[in-house]
Amino acid sequence: MVRSRTGHPAPKVAEPAGAAVPAARHQRVRRPLAERARRRATPYLFIAAALVLLVVFTYVPVVSMFGYSLLDWDGLDPVSEFVGAGNYAELVTRPELFGVFTVSLYYFGGTVVQLAAALYFAAILSFKVRFRNFFKGVLFFPYLINGVAIGFIFLYVFKPDGVLDTLLGLLGVEDKPLWLGDRSVVNHSLTGVSIWRYFGLNLVLFLGAIQSIPAHLFEAAQMDGATRWQQFRHIIVPGIRPVIGLNLILGVSGALSVFEIPYIMTGGANGSATFVIQTVNTAFKYHKVGLASAMAVVLLALVLIVTWIQRRTIPDDTTELS
Amino acid sequence: MTTRARTQTTRARARTTPARARLAVTLKYASLAAGCLVAAVPLLVVFLASLKSEDELYGETPFAPPANWFNLDNYRTAFEEGQLVDAFVNTTIILVISLTGTVLIGSMAAYAVSRFDFRGRRLTMFLFLLAALVPGVTTQVATFQVVTGLGLFNTRWAAIALFTGTDIISIYIFLQFLRGIPRSVDEAAMLDGATHWKIYRTIILPLLKPAIVTVVIVKGVAVYNEFYIPFLYMPSRDLGVVSTSLFRFQGPTGTQWEVISAGIVITVIPTLIVFLALQRYIYNGFTRGATK
To answer: How many CB atoms are located within 10 Å of the residue B125 CB?
Structure first.
């Protein structure tokens, strides 16, 4: 094992140089110090690049973010003022800053719908279906599309007298809201886009999980005359429950940090601003880096808490059956 | 006895409810078709719009076919006014360098962690694990200071450095895969006098090929689609990538939907080609990439 080989120094005395001892060993015995130093340095050399990048682009920002959150600073001025917890106080006391978290509720609701739909289609596609790959491909493909393209596609779909209005007109619907202009509708519309975008990934993940359920369980159930619904209820759902749970919790942190779709489509107008949009605007539009950092710290803390809950509640191994 | 009785009742049930069974099958395909329509119609109407002239687009319903299926005027306009050639060049440069960097740096790190026992190994693992939990967008406020401090602002290196430097998932994919490669493989090479570098290069890296495919797919899609990092760090027009150049269509061209639609289609086509060509790898890649 590599472990013992690097951990222990080379044998103090050259072993009776049997035929099996390779040349490398001889060298090591001859230059034990240089060799040992080099051997010890080896793993660090391999990991150095990754570690440097990790520190520079993840840990330095995270740590300095905590520092900035205690300052009143525009991000450019060399002068900044220490305000302690002032930014956090401002964050909690100004409802328009903290209130945007309610927008996340729409997206979390969307996640639930998305998971239910993905579960339904995954179950259907896991049984015998004609054109299975075609259906799977069409349903999955949106997930791969560029976010800006998706935003624009749905700006076109939602525009007044656009695709959606025309379709509803065909169905006889008279009153069509301004999908992105009406404060009471905009978040539903954007959540719909989000479902359209991410549904495919859930579908493929669920399908993969269902396929890893041992086939003999289905065979036995069929022999016992179980209906498809019974198989779904008693084999598929319990079989992939950890995957469902994991995706549900990922949905919580996802809903907290929604950004791209509303930023591209509305820029956060009409009450569609999410916490991340607000943070980004506070930092780069209003140049209040201190306050924005405090907001980012809060969001980071929330996401870490959610992840921690996930680690505690969902077991790591995803194979309960088999 | 009981088994036979049960199969008989099943058969009886199956026989008595052919109508129900047929209804179930109909519902199954109807819902699949409905799902596919929801997924495909937005893409199809945009494709139609990209082939229409301005008059056609505003005069008819979005579902009307274009007068000329080979009207490529909008595509020409999109390419010229949207600087899309530059965008594809920039995206390709960034993709190639960050993917190469991610694969090399990630696989080397995974090799170190899985094959050596060194001081600080556990701490390193923990740092990588913790970093994987930090959502990227939240820290941009402070990352911005680092990037400008390094003088990378408004250069392609800003995006390359961030794509390469904040990728932790790939290290996990490599680590998982390395666990499946028996150590005896590299030990045999070591007995032949190979250095660790040589073992990494000639044995580990080639064996990691399936993991590399996964990383390249998952990471490649993410980089091609990434909007905010190039938007924030590369505001210069000449440094536009596919996402940011498409985003700019909203401004100067007003709402010329026929041109924007062409821009959308140009953006989606490479994705579609890659998807059709690598379907199986893509499904596997995302299943593997997402669960860990």
So the answer is: 13
What ipTM was reported for this prediction? Answer: 0.89
Q: How would residue A35 be classed by pLDDT, with cut points 50, 70 and 90?
A: confident
> CB distance B268–A149 less than 8 Å?
yes
Tens digit of pLDDT for each residue in A237-258?
998 988 898 888 888 888 998 9
Same domain flag for A11 and A139: no
Which regions of A31-160 does DSSP assign to beta strands (E)?
A: 71-72, 81-82
Q: What pTM did the predictor assign?
A: 0.87
A157 with A222, same domain: the answer is yes
- Minimal Cα distance from B5: which residue of A? A224
Disruptive mutation site among B97, B138, B249, B273 for chain A (greatest number of A CBs within 10 Å): B138
Residue A81 lies in a domain: no
Cβ of A54 and B127 within 8 Å? yes
Q: Is residue B76 part of a domain?
A: no
Given a contact cutoff of 8 angstroms between Cβ atoms, the answer to whether B174 and B211 are in contact is yes
Are A26 and A59 part of one and the same domain? yes
**Helices B156-165 and B140-149, packing angle to 10 deg:** 120
Instruction: Say yes or no: A248 contacts chain B, CB-CB below 8 A.
Output: no
Within 8 A of B291 by CB-CB distance, chain A residues are 205, 243, 318
Q: What element of type H or E holds B230?
A: helix B228-233
Whether residue B77 is contained in a domain is answered as no
pLDDT confidence tier of residue A197, bands split at 50, 70 and 90: very high
The span from the CA of A138 to the CA of A140, in Å, is 6
The alpha carbon dihedral of A68, A74, A80, A83 has a sign of: negative
Per CB-CB distance under 8 Å, the chain A contacts of B261 are 156
Give the model confidence (pLDDT) of B2-56 as tens digits: 444 444 445 445 444 688 888 888 999 999 999 999 999 999 999 999 999 988 9
Among candidates A43, A61, A300 on the partner chain, residue whose Cβ is nearest the Cβ of B118: A43
Residue B198's domain is classified under what CATH number? 1.10.3720.10
- Residue B100 belongs to a domain: yes
- Domain of residue B246 covers 82-291
Average pLDDT of the segment spanning B286-290: 75
CA A304, distance to chain mean position in Å, is 12
Judged by a CB distance cut-off of 8 A, whether residue A64 touches chain B is: yes
Whether A139 and A254 map to the same domain: the answer is yes
Shortest CB distance from B140 goes to which of A153, A223, A280?
A280
Task: Determine whether A292 is exposed, middle or buried from the number of CB atoms within 10 Å of its CB (0-12, 13-18, 19+).
Answer: buried
Last residue of a domain, one of A68, A103, A118: A68
Q: The tokens of A132 are what?
A: 């299975």
The CATH number linked to A196 is 1.10.3720.10
- Domain that residue A54 falls in: 2-68
Q: What is residue A314's predicted lDDT score, i.e. its pLDDT?
A: 67
- Number of domain units in chain B: 2
A42 Cβ under 8 Å from any chain B Cβ: yes
In this structure, are B26 and B86 located in the same domain? no
Has residue A231 got a pLDDT over 80?
yes
Indicate if the pLDDT at residue B166 is higher than 90. Answer: no
